[in-house]
Amino acid sequence: MRKRKPTKRWLATASPLTRAAIVFVAVVVTLVLAAWLTARPRDPTLYPPPPGEAAVTVRLVAGAWHSGLLLPREDLARAAEEAGDGALLEVTERFRAYPALEIGWGDAGFYRTVPTVEALDGRLALRALFTPGGRPAVLHVVGVAAEPEAAFPGAEIVTLRLSQAGFRRLAAALGRAVTMRDRHPVVLGPGLYGPSLFYAAEGRFSLLAVCNHWSAGLLNAAGVPVTPLLDTLPRGLVLDLAWRAGAHAP
């Protein structure tokens, strides 16, 4: 008769607690390995900016379930003009009265109907995350005049200094996210708070492409290292930027 392998015999006789611990460790190791394999590296030619070079300061604004980027409007308009990006130029011109723009990306249905955590609809969230093929996306653009901490009380705000070249790459990636129709960005209506608008956006929202992945992707375009698996949640993105990019809260 064929003998059972010692490992299998040991697992069969192990206590439920021991087996649970083994499963837990295996899951953790798998997640760590997946995070490492999918991590996107830093581009040393873009980030951090070389000593003595003028830098562009951008901020990640992270809430409980959503994150966006706070970008200097003049720098964004200048980058769009240099690149001939009509979509981004039109957006920055529309908000020309404000020194900064907070821009986020997300599911068109969920983003436009769930302004706060208190308004969270679990069924709508599940539909947004697990619809096969993903769901249509929108951009949310807010004109910001106040200091970041005053404009977004309660949010975690992470500051990064980007090189000029890195910021231009970020602006180019942002411009590609704006859906155009008849050579103009598609305005969908008023935003959730303050002077804001929703725009139709490129991309499909899903569990593998949430708002925090989008924010991380723009920063990665600027040369910042990111870890998509960790960046799924806002808090994970904040920690990722602290650990891998040396970013800091004010």
Specify the biggest β-sheet.
7 strands, antiparallel
With strands numbered from the N-terminus, the spatial order across the biggest sheet is: 5-1-2-3-4-9-8
Helix content: 40-55%
Question: In angstroms, what is the radius of gyration?
Answer: 21 Å
Low-confidence blocks of residues: 27-32
Secondary-structure content class: alpha+beta
Structure description:
The chain is of the alpha+beta class. Helix content is 42%, strand content 23%. It contains ten helices and nine strands. It has helices spanning 6-13, 16-38, 73-83, 86-94, 108-113, 122-130, 148-151, 164-176, 211-221, 234-245, and strands at residues 55-62, 67-72, 100-107, 135-144, 156-163, 180-181, 184-185, 187-190, 196-205. The strands form two sheets. A seven-stranded antiparallel sheet has the order 5-1-2-3-4-9-8. A two-stranded antiparallel sheet has the order 6-7. 36% of the residues are buried. Mean pLDDT is 84; it is low at 27-32.
For this entry, give a set of tags.
250 residues; alpha+beta; 2 domains; seven-stranded antiparallel β-sheet; two-stranded antiparallel ribbon; 10 helices; globular
Short recap of the structure:
The protein is of the alpha+beta class and 250 residues long.
Chart the SSEs and their pairings.
Elements: H1 6-13, H2 16-38, E1 55-62, E2 67-72, H3 73-83, H4 86-94, E3 100-107, H5 108-113, H6 122-130, E4 135-144, H7 148-151, E5 156-163, H8 164-176, E6 180-181, E7 184-185, E8 187-190, E9 196-205, H9 211-221, H10 234-245
Antiparallel strand pairs: 1-2, 1-5, 2-3, 3-4, 4-9, 6-7, 8-9
Helix pairs in contact: 3-4, 3-8, 8-9
